[in-house]
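Practice set, problem 2.
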Amino acid sequence: MPNPEAQPHQHRSRTRPSTSAAVSARTAVRDRVPLRQLLRVASVASGIQFGWALQLSLLTPYVQQLGIPHQWASIIWLCGPVSGLFVQPLVGLMSDRCTSRFGRRKPFILVGAASIVVAVIIIGYAADIGWWFGDTESNRPWAITFFVIGFWILDVANNVTQGPCRALLADLTSKDARRTRVANAYFSLCMAIGNILGYATGSYSGWYKIFTFTLNPACTISCANLKSAFFLDIAFIAVTTYISITAAHEVPLNSSGAAHAEEGAGESGSAEEAFMWELFGTFRYFSTPIWIILSVTALTWIGWFPFILFDTDWMGREIYGGDPNVGLTYDAGVRMGALGLLLNSVVLGITSLLMERLCRKRGAGFIWGISNILMAFCFLAILVVTYVANNIGYVGKDPPPTGIVIAALVIFTILGFPLAITYSVPYALISTHIEPLGLGQGLSMGVLNLAIVIPQIVVSLGSGPWDQLFGGGNSPAFAVAAVAALVSGLIAVLAIPRSGAQKARIHV
């Protein structure tokens, strides 16, 4: 058992070599990276987010069309947070120490992008593969099996790619505050562009007419549209990944830097042991502000994840009154939900460009808190719209009234503002407060990722059965989300130190 009194000194001695290795790599990078190069490097975020948009808008409805009941749909999404719990922190640490001649981050980005391509092919052809293995229209065990396999590969690949993308921009901008702000703005902008294109693709119902070969007895219209959208995703991620990795001129860790990193890991055991120790062992050194930031992050994602899981399903089920396996009403609602997410992404992109100014005037913690309170009111509005829709009496009979649809789209659109804050501010705050611990950029993102994926696991396990307990709709999960968002917003406004917020704004 290690001596607790000796741990702070041991931790500093262990992390100092890793930090010096990272600094030695950064000093070889040019002091000021051209803006055009930063934009090209950030472009891979568009490709990743394009696929995320399709995944978020189409896959929850699709998995129900394959025959998985609504109460179990959230369990399918469990793979994302479970893989993120281990994969993203481990990849972050490995990329911090990678000595490849191609650079520290680019190999992981390339492998992750290639894995995404494999995953979407499996998902898109799950129904066809199941048909080859003997599935019928009413019984699709093989299709469900291959869908789940592809889904797991997709979530692991996303986690492999995301962390190194953010860390790469941090490496290129080093300690240039202006370039750091611009890089984060470009990254958020590219994410918004990917979302807009992905949701626009998901909201269009005629892809099967363009890619006619996707339609067959095993794959109906909704399946063919999904498959076609994934073909576009493959092309887009291939182009953006090529642009990004050819633009990023990384300087590999030199042999001395690598030796130092290995020496640092050796002081606490093997590289694997060092990973677990550095990730979880650093918790004992966290200050109160760090725990507050992690707590607010966890509550924020308890708020976001039910919406992410069920946004388009809510539109198809509660607003349009459809059923995943009956008629085309549900599909029409899902497409309208994708349109709402497209509008959401437009607001996300605009807010990302204004992020620095907002945080400079009011402080990052305050802006985060206000955005979460706004998010809570939006979730309450979802409950109100659901109640009104159910009491008007049209559900299951006629198309929804225009006013109800507009109200739902307005809620989706407004939620783009707090989503932009969630994508940026927590990373800036945690980076500022954890920096004295000597963690690398990749592992720092992994620490914050724990506060994101653990709540997602809780929501994935609980939201489906919880909804089923209260009648099978999505309202109970949204009610929990509203409470979590409100509490997180109040904590952020009242408890996050103003000084820390002001320091963090230079990184947003």
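Problem 2, part (b): a different protein.
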Amino acid sequence: MQAITVSDRNAGIAGLSLTDMPYPHAAENDVVVRVHAAGFTPGELDWPATWTDRAGRDRTPSVPGHELAGVVAELGIGTTGLTVGQRVVGLADWARNGTLAEYVVVEVRNLAPLPADVDYVTAAALPISGLTAWQGLFDHGRLATGQTVLIHGAAGGVGSIAVQLAREVGAHVIGTGRAADRDRALELGVHTFIDLAAERFEDAGEVDVVFDVIGGEVLARSAAVVRAGGALVTIAAPPEIRPEAGRAVFFVVEPDRVRLADLIARVRDGRLKPVVGAVRPLTEAPAAFAPGKRTPGKTIIQVTED
């Protein structure tokens, strides 16, 4: 099979290449999925799990990418709950080869059925962004109806879903981003948009939850706007400055088959619309990692034509 691989952790994006890899082996409770569409995170080449397995052993050449939508090609011994030929969506293990490949092995517990009326590209934009948004807002932020949430990066892959989920539960949503993101963020449902380059989000007042995907100075300044009993939640880095009378949470998204199926149901009935940016073939995946013209939403790699 063909896959995007990386072998030299010092080469950065230049080390990514399209190569031939052996067809993967499915162990007990594993599923081999024929990948139709895949998502990735640009910072993956900096993750320790990209280079080593769970025991700390080198596992290069490794395949990046962890979101997928595709079709079950094979079941490992003892695997139940899915059938060969079934459409699925899910999140691949961080410390195993990823989804920028024609085939990938995934634990069955990390896959949810994908209905026929949700296309692969849309589905592939959902696992990391959707689960991160849900876990950040509700599991860690404990956002409730009538509260106010400040979402940094409101037009991005994670932020755009967070905005929609927060609106659905009846929260007041303040979104931040670049000036070019304003129209998109307002369409998604933010009540107030703040241009980070020209406006101070502190001037919007205190909030119950801050959900940050940016980090750096934005994260450091955010602690001051969390009201008593509230939460500062981030996926960027552990906060160095914490709210005086609230919680600070840094987390990494976890697979959740049940919640992913619930998010897919929201997509089906129109309550949730993942924002897909560029869609590129597998041959262009290395270029998709490179900094360049910014595209709102999430870049998806279409591995196989539908």
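Answer key, part (b): The helical segments are 120-124, 127-140, 157-168, 182-188, 216-222, 257-268, 285-289. The chain has seven helices and 15 strands.
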